[in-house]
């Protein structure tokens, strides 16, 4: 399988910002640097590499993951079609417009992060706009990337549980379908011993029109589906 290695990054490689939607919601700190994120959580986190998900085989949704301490589920409207190559498997959807939804965390978590990027119909890396949001959009990050190591992390600074994470993509070019893809997902608890210090950040507004019909491309059948 052809694998792209060209990396495109923004001028700012690591950003972090504290977002407060309203006084009733969690204070969520966002990260784009994995090392900084790991320094702000307890070391007994759960790292899921998705190597257990078969490569090049459609997998029914939801998929349950567990390491014996933490567990959660990943779901997609039209199931999953893992991407990647060799021993490096990535979690991706069967249809490009389906987001990946992580939820049902047990025990409750206050930290989640991982690599978020886009892949093409054969499961190889492709440039795209990747967006990740937690707790029904109370905090979001978005970036145009062509890197398998694009990191997004979220930490609840006040102990409010993170109940969901949604990953989605937007095409850069209208003739290129991009599938949301996640790798090396980390879930755990924010460290109470040392609170992270927010770094400079860029805020990306999210506005995607959905009032018109759009073309979905299914990986497994490799056929177009039109919903209007």
Describe this entry's structure for a reader.
- The protein is an all-beta fold.
- It has a single domain, classed as Sandwich (Jelly Rolls), CATH 2.60.120.
- It is 3% helix and 40% strand.
- The chain has one helix at residues 34-39, and strands at 18-19, 28-31, 46-48, 63-66, 71-75, 83-85, 88-92, 100-106, 111-119, 125-126, 128-134, 139-145, 151-156, 164-170, 179-188, 214-218, 223-227.
- The strands form three sheets. Strands 1, 2, 3, 6, 7, 9, 10, 13 and 15 form a nine-stranded antiparallel beta sheet that branches.
- The longest helix has 6 residues, at 34-39.
- The radius of gyration is 17 Å and the shape is globular.
For this entry, give a set of tags:
disordered C terminus; 17 strands; disordered N terminus; 40% strand; Jelly Rolls; 6-stranded antiparallel sheet
What's the gist of this structure?
With 228 residues, this protein is mostly beta strands. It has 1 helix and 17 strands. The protein has a single domain (28-188), classed as Jelly Rolls (Sandwich).
- Domain count: 1
Main beta sheet: strand number and arrangement?
A: 9 strands, antiparallel
Q: End-to-end span in angstroms?
A: 33 Å
| CATH topology assignment | Jelly Rolls
Helix content: under 10%
Query: What is the count of DSSP helices, taking H or I runs of 4+ residues?
Result: 1
Order of helices and strands: EEHEEEEEEEEEEEEEEE
Looking at the structure, what is the overall shape? globular
Strand proportion, as a percent range, falls in 35-45%
Q: Got a strand count? A: 17
User: C-alpha Rg, in Å?
Assistant: 17 Å
Q: Which segments are poorly predicted (pLDDT under 50) over 5 or more consecutive residues?
A: 1-24, 196-215, 221-228
State the secondary-structure class.
mainly beta
CATH architecture: Sandwich
| CATH secondary-structure class | Mainly Beta
Question: Mean pLDDT across all residues, rounded?
Answer: 81
Keywords: Signal
Protein name: PEP-CTERM putative exosortase interaction domain-containing protein
Signal peptide: 1-26
InterPro entries: Ice-binding_C
